[in-house]
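User: My advisor, Dr. K., asked me to get a structural model of this assembly before our group meeting. I'm new to this, so sorry if the format is off. These are the inputs:
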Amino acid sequence: MIQVPPGSVAGRLRAPASKSHLQRLLLAASLAPGTSLIRQPGSSADGVACLGVIRDLGAGVKVAGDVLEIRGGGRAGTGSLDCGESGFCLRAAAAVAALQDLPVTLSGHGSLLTRPMEMVLDPLRQLGVACSTREGLPPITVRGPLKGGQARVDGRASSQFLSGLLLALPRAPGDSRVEVEGLRSGPYIRMTLDVLEAFGVSVEASPALDLFRVPGGQTYRPVDVAVEGDWSGAAFLLVAGAVAGDVAVEGLNPASAQADRAILRALEEAGAAPAWEGGTLRQRRADLRGFTFDATDCPDLFPPLAALACHAGGLTRLKGASRLKAKESDRATALVKELSAMGARLRVEGDWMEIEGGPLEGGAIDPHNDHRMAMACAVAGLRSARGAAMEGEACVDKSYPGFFNDLASLRGGA
Ligand SMILES: O=C(O)C1=C[C@@H](OP(=O)(O)O)[C@@H](O)[C@H](O)C1
Ligand SMILES: C=C(OP(=O)(O)O)C(=O)O
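Assistant: The format is fine. Below is the predicted structure of the whole assembly, which you can bring to the meeting.
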C-alpha cells in the first residue's frame, strides 16, 4: 500500500532506461556473433524478462555492474520461453524464436495471458513456420526454421510483431518482402529500424512503413551502446512538474525515435512550455489549458496525458482510446473508472477520451496491475485535496521500478 500525499514537487531526476530500446537491443545482440556491450540497462521487469528469453534462446549473458555482456549467435537450449508480462517480448521473440529449428513455446503470466496474439500467426504461417495458440492467446508455439519469403502483416492491433519480424528476417537464408496493413504505433518501427542500422543490418522500408524488403543471410555486428532514457516514464515526471512544481529530467535523447517523445508536443499544446537547459529537460508548473491530441501512434502517452488534462482548464480531447483495450489493463476503461473515483470528469466516446479539467478530490484507487495506471493516478493526485492511495503499487516495476522513490525524492525540494 502506498500513499502519495498532495503537494508540490521540485528537483532533478535521471530518466529510467527505456525498456523498448533495451528489449530491441537484447534481441538484436542475441543474433550477433561476438560480444555486444549494452550499458545502463536499468532493471525494468520487462527488460529482465527479455534477458531471460535471449538466454534461453542460446545467448551468453554476463552482468558486469551496469553493463550487460551479450554473446550472440547461439542455439536454443530449451523449447520454452517465459516472457513475463511483456507484450513486446512475447510478440517479437516469437519471430526470433522461429529462426531456430526446434519447437519453441512462448508464454508468460498475469495480464499477458489475456492479450491477443492473432497478428503473429498468419504472417509466420505464410513464411512456412508452423504455429499455434490457445484461441489467439498465449502460450504460442512456433516451429521454424524461418526461411524468408513473402508475408502480409496486420498492423492494426499492434506493431510489436512487425518489429520482431524485422529483427529476425535478416538472419533467414532467403530474401523477404513484407507488406503491412493499417500500421499503428509507427514510431516504434522506426526505433526498430534504428537498432537494425546500429547492428549493421539493412532493411529497405517504404516511407509509409507499409512495405519492407529484407535481404536474407545478413550478419549482425556486435555493438557497444547505452540504452536511451525512457520518454514514456519521463512523461509522468514532466506532467508532475507541469501540474505541481518544477522538475528537471536528465538523460533523454532530444532526437530519439521513441514514440513518446511526442509528450513535448502535447505539453506545448497544453500551454506548459517544456524547456531544454543543456541536456536537461525542465518542466515548471504552468497555467494549463485544455488541448486536443492524437495519441493513436503513441498509445502509452494516454495515461500521463489524462493526468495532465485533469488539471488543464476547459476541455481536453485525446484520440486513440480504442487502441488501449488490450494493454496491461483495459486502459481507457480503467482510466475513466479510477480518475473518476478521484473526482475527475472524463468519458470515452468511440475513439476519443474527453476530460474536463478542474479541482480533484483524490483518494484510493485500484491500479489494475498496470504500471501506467499507477503512475498516472499518483501524478494526478499531486494536485488534489487528498492525494492518491493504492495497493499493488509494485506494478510500476514493469517499466519504472524506481518511480515511487523518484517521486518521493522530489518532495520538499520546492
Ligand atoms: O514496440 C514496443 O516496444 C511497444 C509498442 C507499443 O505497442 P503497440 O505496437 O502494440 O501499440 C507500446 O504500446 C508498447 O508499450 C511498447
Ligand atoms: C503496453 C505496454 O507494454 P507491452 O505491450 O510490451 O507489454 C506498456 O509498457 O505500456
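One thing worth pointing out at the meeting: The CA atoms of residues 121 and 201 lie 25 Å apart.

User: Perfect, thanks a lot.
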